[in-house]
Amino acid sequence: MISSQPDPEDQEILAVPVTWGDVKALPVLAANQLAVQVDSLGTRPDLVVLTVGHVVPPIISGPEEQRRAQVEQITDVVVQPLARFSLSPGRLREWSDLLRTTADRFEEMQREEGADHD
User: Fold this and answer.
1) Which of 95, 93, 72, 77 is nearest to 33 (CA)?
2) Are 76 and 55 within 8 A, CB to CB?
3) Do 48 and 100 share a domain, yes or no?
4) By the 8 A CB rule, do 92 and 48 touch?
C-alpha cells in the first residue's frame, strides 16, 4: 500500500493498493557486498544510502608459500557495484524487519529440511 501525505487541514490518510510490474524482466544478480552510508541534510542525518555489489575472490593456488606470496601481491580486490538505494529511516527500519523475518523463516525451513533427512 502507498499512503498519501495527510493534508494539514485534513488528517485522513488515503491508501491505494500496489501491484508489482513484470519482475521477470529483471536479472537476478548475485550480491555479496554491502556498503551503508548516512547522508546528511546539513548537520542532521537524513537518509541512508545502501550500495549493493559483488566481488569475485582472486584465485590463489599452489603450496602455502606460493599462496602467501600471491596474497602479498594483491593491492585490492574490486567490488562490482550493482545498485544503490536511498532510504528514509522509516523505510530502512521496514526493510530491516522484513529481512530479519525472512532470515528467521529461512533458517526454520532449513532446520525442518534437516530434520526430514534424519
Assistant:
1) 77
2) no
3) no
4) yes
Whether 69 and 17 map to the same domain: the answer is: yes
Q: How many domains does the chain have?
A: 2
Model confidence, pTM: 0.72
Look at residue 7 and tell me whether its pLDDT is greater than 70: no
Cell of 73: 601481491
Note the pLDDT tens digit of each residue in 45-93.
899 999 999 999 999 999 999 999 999 999 999 999 999 999 999 999 9
56 and 98 fall within a common domain: no
Using CB atoms within 10 Å of the CB of residue 108, give its burial: 0 to 12 exposed, 13 to 18 middle, 19+ buried.
exposed
